[in-house]
Amino acid sequence: MNISTRSGLAAVFVLAIAGALGLAQSDESSENSSASAQAQKQDGQRALRTREFLGLGRQPDHQLASKGEKIFGPTCGFCHGADGRGGTGPDLLRSALVLDDDKGELIGPVVQNGRPSRGMPAFSALTEEQVRAIAEFLHMQVELAANRGTYRVQNILTGNAQAGEAYFKGQGKCYTCHSVTGDLAHIASKLSPLDLQAVELYPEARSYDFGGTHPPRQVTVILADGKKFTGSLKHLDDFYVSLEDEQGQYHSIAITKGVKAVVEDRLVFHRKMLDHYSDKQIHDLTAYLVTLK
Amino acid sequence: MKSRPLMLWSLLVLLHGASIAQLLDPHKLLEAEPTDTWPTYNGDYSGRRFSPLAQIRTSNVSGLALTWMYRVKVAAPMRGVTNPEIKSTPLMVKGILYFTIPDHVFAVDARTGRELWHYDWVDQGGHLVGNRGVGMYGDWLYFMAPDGWFISLEARTGKERWRKKVADEKMQYFTTMAPMVVGHHVLIGVGGDAIDVPGFLEARDPQTGELQWRWNTEPRKGEPGSETWPNDAAMEHGGGMTWLPGTYDKDLNLLYWGTGNPNPVTAGQGREGSNLWTCAIVALNPDTGKLVWYFQASPHDTHDWDNVETPVLFDATIDGKPRKLLAQAARNGYFFVLDRTNGKNIISKPFVPLNWSKGVDASGQPIPDKAKEPTVDGSYLTINWGGGTNWMPPSFNPQTGLFYVNATRGYSIVYLTDASDEPEGYGGFGQPLWSQHVLEAIDFRTGNVKWSHVYTTADGTQGGNSGPGVLTTASNLLFTGDYNGNLIAFNATNGDILWHFPALHSLSNGPETYILDGQQYLVAGAGDTLYVFSLVQRRP
After folding, report:
1. Which tens digits make up the pLDDT trace of B257-289?
2. I need a labelling partner for B424 at 20 to 30 A (CA). Which of B29, B43, B131, B137 fits?
3. pLDDT value, residue A45
4. DSSP code string of A33-82
């Protein structure tokens, strides 16, 4: 559907951004927990879900793994690399023995007896507990490489905030609908840079952790005889449209010849812009938006 | 060249034809377009999913009604996924449907929907992302359990004949393919990309399950193609999975297969080069497993765009000359038409907007744009992160000359999370921004989209992981589904909608059709339920 007036567009864009914020918080019970704690919890859930999907087995113990890291580095790192990814010795993250191991029962004997035929010495002085910690460190390293649910984006703030501001106020035409003291005030304290970079391009971008629930849309259905129904859109496909009108009445209407369903489209301008961004403009804009603390 | 497969078939018939009547006559697999049976994943070896049946027509399709439904009753949710989803295309042989979900095989009476037997596997790992179905040879079925087991069952009883371990789930291999029977070979492929393991395709003996040959999707040290990898370690861990059934030309005796993306998946900096034979279409000799030709759809892929989509085979006249062709709508957004005798390119044209490539080279292979590889701060793509399409079966209708595919248009940002010199695993991820599902009818002569249908939906951005497949018939019908739970029949020539049925879930497999007791049936898997339709009134 087309909303022709500029003021109409501005109003709905505010809604869209607010909707995106609501989305980011809706799944969490503690409204007052900080954005970063929330993000951490979501990250943890994503890692668990992905681990289950991949069938990676039990979750490695962080504490034990960090103990193991301290032993692995000086003991094994010389040949296998400090991260276990290989050096003069093999890459242990891709080792069938490591992947088949659960709690050191396969790794342990190799560490303690060595593999003399392949030039690996025995580390018989290590205690069982130390060997167990080494094994856990390796399982954690596998987790970090194989479980893509654990991946964390690195520094995405490579853009130029000044250029971003210029884009916001100029070529990007963001100012037409948005205001950094209005709808976007303090947006950087509500959204992570990663989420900011997604919603600046498309406010309803589906993040990894939320299944794409959107704020309700308004729909107007016009029947062949000109009769109109307006309300909150419940469902729409090629065959049926359903809505709840202002009185709370539910209507389900077959989309037959002459029936028109016109859905309020608040993001038509965002979609048009999708064909015009460069990587630099995107990064500059993100760098600017993160200043809106 | 021609005599060899025929000799094999004669031998096969001699060996088995003499015993009691078999469930699946081996010749059924060589029939161009079987109508009273659906003997293999794609219905026949061509991958066209085109049926010559015309009892259900544009003029009577509105009378198509539900005959029966069968709902799989297994514990839900399944590990790591949500509810069971039928992605397999059932085989229909002598009035019985054989189909699968991960860990389960079902045999159901095609006339009544009554379950005859159910084989239940307890896995020790592997992904439950999907299972594409069974393969059949005489009285035997073949099934891939998710954790790398290749299993043969007695088709009459569901009793296990034997099982062979073919891939290690601890190395993150997983197995979902519908085994494909060609002559005296059962072809099986593998999946797996969480840990950097190499891909392969195997032929196994139908009777014993023993290995006949194995084709590796990466060359070995010093072999041709190894120059497309920077070092042996990268090549030996280069991915390239083979998880969808291929197609077969009996006259050329060539097997056509699509290979998956290279590993590490989105972090390509440790594997500079084109990374053969990942993300390619390959032609193999089915008796030896030797590579005959290849065409690489995505040299040095860094976007997880497996090129396993069905290589569809058909013949046509181009510039007055009869040609043997192969067409594929690839996940990377390109529509390809090749000469299947030699792999030479005829058409390479995007069927969705995209910016990852700078065009195609002299051989028709897309040239990846280095600037559009994933970056730490995000690289912007004007194509859906999941690709322009996915595994869902397309269809080619020789009468309309159109190739039909459920496509997705979209935008995304791709991030590199492992920026080290030698990354491992995926090493990055993609952020979807906006996407839209659309059914496209592509003219194979030009690569142009002749008509398309954008599925109407309430959301500007559409979700949905399982893709709906496509079936076409000689009566100008196209069957598929949207992402809102509707099964839909289209007019194949112009895209008009002629019929729909609101199912409980969206179509999750490739629909199929066959004739049984003189009646044409339509079968569709949607979520955990199989739906079977026929015309309310039989033909006079």
Report:
1. 999 999 999 999 999 999 999 999 999 999 999
2. B131
3. 87
4. S-HHHHHHHHHHHHHHHHHHHHT--SPP-HHHHHHHHHHHHHHHHHHH-T
Measured between CA atoms, how close is B117 to chain A, in angstroms?
28
When scoring A48, A59, A94 by the number of chain B Cβ atoms within 10 A, the one with the most, hence best to mutate, is A94
Class of residue A6 by CB neighbours under 10 A (exposed 0-12, middle 13-18, buried 19+): exposed
What residue of B is the nearest CA neighbor of A148? B426
For A202, name the nearest residue in chain B, comparing CA atoms only: B433
**In the block, which residue shows the tokens 């037959």?**
A256
3-class secondary-structure state, position B118: strand
CA-to-CA distance for B439 and B3, rounded, in angstroms? 41
Tell me the C-alpha distance between B83 and B489, whole Å: 26
Model pTM score: 0.92
Summarised one tens digit per residue, pLDDT across range B168-193 is: 999 999 999 999 999 999 999 999 99
To the query of whether residue B304 is one of the catalytic residues in this protein, the response is: yes
Characterize the bridge pairing of strands B140-145 and B149-154: antiparallel
Residue of chain B minimizing CA distance to A286: B377
Q: What is the pLDDT of residue A18?
A: 33
Distance from CA of A107 to the nearest CA of B (A): 15
The CA distance from A266 to B515, in Å, is 49
Banded model confidence at residue A33, pLDDT cuts 50, 70, 90: very low
Distance CA B527, CA B72 (A): 9
The partner residue sitting opposite B169, judged by closest CB among A55, A236, A267, is A55
User: What residue has token string 């544009």?
Assistant: B58
How close is the nearest chain A Cα to the Cα of B5, in Å? 39
Of the residues B193, B304, B482, B528, only one is catalytic, namely: B304
Residue of B171, B380, B436, B438 to mutate for A, most A C-beta atoms under 10 A: B380
Q: Which helix (H) or strand (E) holds B14?
A: helix B3-17
At A35, the pLDDT band (50, 70, 90 cuts) reads low
Note the pLDDT of residue A286. 97
Q: Collapsing DSSP states into helix, strand and coil, what is residue B258?
A: strand
Cβ–Cβ < 8 Å for B398, B50? yes
CB contact under 8 A, A96 and B168: yes
Q: Are B488 and A96 inside 8 Å of each other by CB? A: no
Task: Determine the length of chain B.
Answer: 540
Region for B479 from its dihedrals, namely left if φ exceeds 0, alpha if ψ lies in -120 to 50, beta otherwise: beta
**Which of A99, A151, A198 comes nearest B413 by C-beta?**
A198
Prediction ipTM score: 0.92
| Chain A contact probe: residue of B196, B433, B488 with most A CBs at under 10 A | B433
Whether the CB-CB separation of B298 and B409 falls below 8 Å is answered with no
Total count of residues recorded for chain A = 293
**What's the pLDDT tens digit per position in B299-315?**
999 999 999 999 999 99
Q: Assign A215 a pLDDT band (cuts: 50, 70, 90).
A: confident
Minimum-distance CB partner of A93 among B424, B434, B455: B424
3-state per-residue secondary structure call for B482-493: CCCCEEEEEECC
CA nearest B261: which of B301, B220, B202, B310? B301
Exposed / middle / buried, residue B538 (Cβ in 10 Å: 0-12, 13-18, 19+)? exposed
The per-residue pLDDT for A42 is 76
Ranges of residues in chain B with a pLDDT under 70 are 1-20, 459-466, 537-540
CA distance B327 to B446: 12
pLDDT value at position B501? Answer: 97
